């Protein structure tokens, strides 16, 4: 059976699940599509058009598996601003001009996809994006709260609308207008349904999403009034307006202002926000995919761009990938893009079959859904989350939030980026760190011998400015592999990079791989949060580093407990116990830190920093070593791989030693020392077999202790555990061979 036949069979078998998922998502997409369009001051049907076009086009051409597309929360403020500015008081004409901007925005997104700009979202600081989303949430809430309370004509900036919310409440208390009071009650009850829906545990009740319950109950209420012959106290101005014949009443874009400055700004604003919202949503949904698949973001950008262009030409809003509807899709059992397609078909059916019912939906009910959506985006918990990371993140968050509220989204995100960069310069007390190294190659990736780990070394700095370089390397590694990312030569790592690496680690873990960060233990942080900014400590300061442990340090602490050893993180310059090893005759030892010590058996593992070379050739090396103090005297020797350090030891008077009857051992290793007979006596068949059956370690004896080195870099926690096991086994073998010099 061919792979194509197998895939077709799997697709057909999964159809019932995807049809069901598409139906469930359509129940949410219908009220949200209507509501988001109304919030943007566009005709309600424009939101449905975007969802239908997006569902069909992206399902057929997209690069993601279980995402849902349609109008997005993030564009409400941008579209509302564009319609208001371009229309100059005429909202419908502004809508037609904005449709033209949407068409151009789609073409621009299509171009971004062909230029492989799927990494666009990586260039924005994480806290600035959080601030932007919070501003969008506040903007939606500010506008929709008035409509929820029955005031459809509220106008003004976001700040003005926020400040007049108390007036709405006072008017409601004192009003004699029963029509407005009834509408406000519908809005408030709808909001309560959104808030308390998750508290109701009845499985049958939960089959219908909260937004659809609002539509069912509010439309049902209107039919109750009709049934009893009582006039419905909600006027036409407070109900959704949909043309009787949707197809013959489609709006088409007006391209008359395409050369105007306001139009061009609108195009770039729509493109920027829709791209960021889509890319962030795709990334989030990939983490939810039970089949652990990674989306082709550039292919998705092209599909979204084409869908947006078509939607704009037909009178619809922008098409973006939406996280809330996508997560419902995953939770409903969707397995492929067909669920997005079926969600679009169900929406078409709803509009054609339930056209009369849609006209009975109160605007206040839809506004309540959006008020809750806005609150979720601007939830105080998101501020607390940012504050836990670090004080500087609060400044970035608030700068982006407030600038967006008082100006616009593009200015807001630009201010967030600028403030982030200034903060990074101030923290590092250097602008040259970023200017000099921004365009330099700073990432080295290779697969190590032995265990076959992928090793990535990061130099200079790693922040939102250059994190895409590290991501490109990680994308080249299969997610089933183990990766060690070494920041020991990196002066500064920001919150965006650390959060991004955690996202990668989650993806790798789900496919059996892992990502371990090393080299951050000497970096200073201002909070316990794992994503807190890390900046290298000055060597001269030798400050204690146990204030805010890295994940590696916490794992080392747990490892010490597992072995009943002691763990000490702070730096220690007392390195005299290493000085009589030949390995350090040509190297200058600095200090050690992250010490794991077994005082009972004389074993210790630590991170060590030394320098070799001089002047311009001077190089700082950071590595992890094991030191074993022996109770017996053994000959001085060194065991190295293929004579890599043979010259150093020959200058010290060591000579190569051959072990009889072990040609493989002699070929693989370079054993050297002073007392040939004593060394040959130590290297018994048992010892040789032990060394041949384990991964390579550099081993040196100074007569009374052993020094074990794996690689000239810091080791990950799992590598340290393997080193400890190896050292303990070697210790046992040596201790039982009471040999003198």
Provide structural commentary:
- Helices cover 53% and strands 13% of the residues.
- α4 runs antiparallel to α11.
- It has 28 helices and 17 strands.
- The N and C termini lie far apart (70 Å).
Features:
single chain, 17 strands, 9-stranded antiparallel β-sheet, 741 residues, 6-stranded mixed β-sheet, elongated, 53% helix, alpha+beta
Question: What's this model, at a glance?
Answer:
This protein is about 55% helix and about 15% strand.
Low-confidence stretches: 539-545
- The overall pLDDT average reads 89
Biggest sheet features: 9 strands, antiparallel
Count of beta strands: 17
Shape, principal axes of CA atoms: elongated
Percentage of residues in strands: 5-15%
Structural Rg: 33 Å
Structural class of the helices, strands and pairings? alpha+beta
What percent of the residues sit in helical stretches (DSSP H or I)? Answer: 40-55%
- Treating each run of at least 4 consecutive H or I residues as one helix, how many helices? 28
Sheet with most strands: strand arrangement: 9-10-11-12-17-16-13-15-14
Distance between the first and last residues' Cα: 70 Å
Summarize the topology.
Elements: H1 3-13, H2 15-39, H3 44-61, E1 68-70, H4 76-87, H5 91-114, H6 126-148, H7 158-163, H8 165-174, H9 178-196, H10 210-227, H11 261-288, H12 297-313, E2 320-322, H13 323-331, H14 338-353, H15 355-358, H16 363-377, H17 380-389, H18 391-406, H19 409-428, H20 432-437, E3 443-447, E4 454-462, H21 467-475, E5 482-493, H22 495-510, E6 514-518, E7 523-524, E8 534-536, H23 551-563, E9 566-568, E10 587-598, E11 603-612, E12 619-629, E13 637-641, H24 646-651, E14 655-656, H25 663-668, E15 669-673, H26 676-682, H27 685-692, E16 698-701, E17 705-709, H28 717-735
Parallel strand pairs: 4-5, 5-6
Antiparallel strand pairs: 1-2, 3-4, 5-8, 7-8, 9-10, 10-11, 11-12, 12-17, 13-15, 13-16, 14-15, 16-17
Helix pairs in contact: 2-3, 2-10, 2-13, 2-14, 2-16, 3-12, 3-14, 4-5, 4-11, 5-11, 5-12, 6-16, 6-18, 6-19, 9-10, 9-16, 11-13, 17-18, 18-19
